[in-house]
Amino acid sequence: MGLLDGRVVIVTGAGGGIGRAHALAFAAEGARVVVNDIGVGLDGSPAGGGSAAQTVVDEITAAGGEAVTSGANVADWAQAEGLIQTAVDVFGGLDVLVNNAGIVRDRMFANTSEEEFDAVTAVHLKGHFATMRHAGAYWRARSKAGDTPDARIINTSSGAGLQGSVGQANYSAAKAGIAALTLVASAEMSRYGVTVNAIAPSARTRMTETVFADMMSTQDSDFDAMAPENVSPLVVWLGSVESRDVTGRVFEVEGGIVRVAEGWARGAEADKGARWDPAELGPVVTDLLDRSRTPLPVFGA
Ligand SMILES: NC(=O)c1ccc[n+]([C@@H]2O[C@H](COP(=O)([O-])OP(=O)(O)OC[C@H]3O[C@@H](n4cnc5c(N)ncnc54)[C@H](O)[C@@H]3O)[C@@H](O)[C@H]2O)c1
User: Any keyword Oxidoreductase (predicted)?
Assistant: First the structure.
């Protein structure tokens, strides 16, 4: 018996890196998997078509699992709708949507072009919204028809979105937006039987190979803490029926670490009971900051 027996899962950007690890891990637990990828380069430029997704499907079927490819571009509204429909047409429904596809175009603020900003926010932020929106409509329709789903969305944010990252304004903004989408979708979709959570992973892939190239676990030399496969067990569990009571959360995942990310929270407060004069606010703000937690540092600062 697998933890995901009978469940239908879409993983976007599953032709390589962390998404590939998710697809294989879901299949190993008995899920039928739609392996989505358009097969682009790290910056989103064309690179060899969708063959990477086919390779992952071949790996799953060779191990006795069930999977199908999808070459949908998640940043395209109609193709995102088509991706949800692929799961319904091929496997008869959808239980779990894992949004993972992504690209980077790193640049300091003052050098970033409009095109670089648009490309990154399109794949991450719109790409998450579009698939969630179409999957949400599908699950709402099922719920209204009396067939309440026990469905899951797992999104992919990033430490860059939670803390900020120098040279990644476009990516950080998109990943912060994904954390906010997760909160809103969680609040809206619980009535249709859908939970919505996000992860902020760290793993060695082509996206991070220069950063994490030499990093291995400090605890056990046989354990490669930066392997993308370490990220998938939590995502698989979040996709299972066991996680029904967990929603609206962001988890950081790296190696053997699973950590709850606590987001913006109300800190120290001053209330004058009347409108402030700008000239009197200096010491008030100083006092508030003295009584507040220091923010986590921006990556690379
Ligand atoms: N690797 C890390 O440490 C790390 C850290 C934080 C967040 N992330 C996030 O994890 C996710 C996976 O990243 P990765 O490190 O495995 O990178 P990766 O480049 O190996 O994988 C991303 C995949 O997404 C696919 N893709 C890109 N645009 C697409 C589109 N429009 N439609 C469909 N597929 C598309 C690519 O072809 C690629 O196979 C990304 O969202 C990334 O931002 C990764």
Answer: yes
Burial call 35-46: b when 16+ CB within 10 Å, e when fewer: bbbbbbebebee
Q: Is there a catalytic annotation at residue 175?
A: yes
Q: For a substitution probing ligand 1, which of 34, 40, 178, 254 has the most ligand atoms within 8 Å of its CB?
A: 40
**133: Cα within 13 Å, side-chain hemisphere:** 15
**Residue 171 is a catalytic residue:** yes
Whole-number Å distance, alpha carbon 144 to ligand 1 midpoint, is 34
User: Mind listing the pLDDT tens digit for each residue in 35-85?
Assistant: 999 999 999 998 865 589 999 999 999 999 999 999 999 999 999 999 999
Domains of the chain, start order: 8-261 (3.40.50.720)
- 206-230 per-position pLDDT tens digit: 999 877 766 654 555 799 999 999 9
